[in-house]
């Protein structure tokens, strides 16, 4: 089981480097630029967790942006969902609606550092044996 990264307009390779540097296996990186196709659900269900991401997490995420759709599908499938974002502007209620476990900001291009922070959290919180 691997971590699935599904990041919209964020550098998945940078997040993946951080994840690996912190000690997790290389994640599966799903390109979301073309939307979510039939392989997304298969890859998500095979992952121990999914990471959604976008430049700004806000109410529009809940109301239909792709990161919100990823979180909803993960919740429905019983797969934990986390988020790495450029800026977090979503209130606690919105995060509960999406069932986001961890939300990390990667301001100033700190995607690799955010990936490493998330990996450390996952190793203590949800990593399968």
Automatic annotation (TrEMBL):
Organism from which the protein derives: Capillimicrobium parvum
A single GO molecular function term of this UniProt record: glycerate kinase activity
GO biological process, one term: organic acid phosphorylation
Phylogenetic lineage: Bacteria, Bacillati, Actinomycetota, Thermoleophilia, Solirubrobacterales
The protein's name in its UniProt record: Glycerate kinase
Domain of life (superkingdom): Bacteria
